[in-house]
Amino acid sequence: MRPPIDRLRVHYFLVKLGIEFHYPARLYLVGGTTLVYEGLRQQSLDIDISYEVADEHEAEFSRVIRRLKEDMQINIELASPGDFIPLPAGWKERAKFVGRFGQVDVFHFDLYSTALSKIERGREGDYEDILAMLRSEQINMVELESAFANILPRVERESLKRDPDKFIRNFAALRARVGG
């Protein structure tokens, strides 16, 4: 079992990635990794990432990630809220810039997309994460409602796996926790 991931290990991973990967890339920290990096949660089991890199550098990027995973004894998973929900309009523009590590620009994946994917899943820990994002003002309920309304019709249309009625119930459960 590999040790849990804390903020320092995430930062060290980013520094090492910037040193070892020598081409432009856009890396997104996703989900719990963002929460850990922003101090909203103490640790995570893995570093969740999504990325964009030129096709001709894709294999090298994968090699570097695999090497860092082994050298640092960390779990690194490819994940995106888009794997679970349709992404709301403007998600890319809302990605929060973290920093530049070598030629790798690092962002937090859109936190509204992250919150919506956690609402869709609806686990207790997911609600706690969303409440932490709301309390820290990383997101606000008005914008979250808007993003929810933006994707809800697409959940029904675009997904055989996702249940729009469950998503609506889960969002109502969040509203009740927030007190609205």
Textual characterization of the structure:
A 5-stranded mixed β-sheet has the order 3-2-1-5-4. The radius of gyration is 17 Å and the shape is globular. The chain folds into 2 domains: 7-110; 113-178, no CATH class. The chain has helices at 7-20, 32-37, 58-72, 91-94, 111-121, 124-135, 141-158, 164-178, and strands at residues 25-29, 47-53, 76-78, 96-101, 104-108. By secondary structure, it is an alpha/beta fold. The longest helix has 18 residues, at 141-158. The mean pLDDT is 94. α1 packs across α3 (58-72), α5 (111-121) packs antiparallel against α6 and α5 (111-121) crosses α7 (141-158). The chain has 8 helices and 5 strands, in the order αβαβαβαββαααα.
Give the overall form. Answer: globular
| Order of strands, widest sheet | 3-2-1-5-4
Q: How far apart are the termini? A: 41 Å
Estimate what percentage of residues fall within beta strands.
5-15%
Question: What is the number of strand segments?
Answer: 5
Helical content band: 40-55%
Low-pLDDT ranges: none
Rg over C-alpha atoms, rounded to the nearest angstrom = 17 Å
Topology pattern, helix = H, strand = E: HEHEHEHEEHHHH
How many discrete domains? 2
Residue-averaged pLDDT, rounded? 94
Classification by helices and strands: alpha/beta
Keywords, separated by commas or semicolons:
alpha/beta, five-stranded mixed sheet, 8 helices
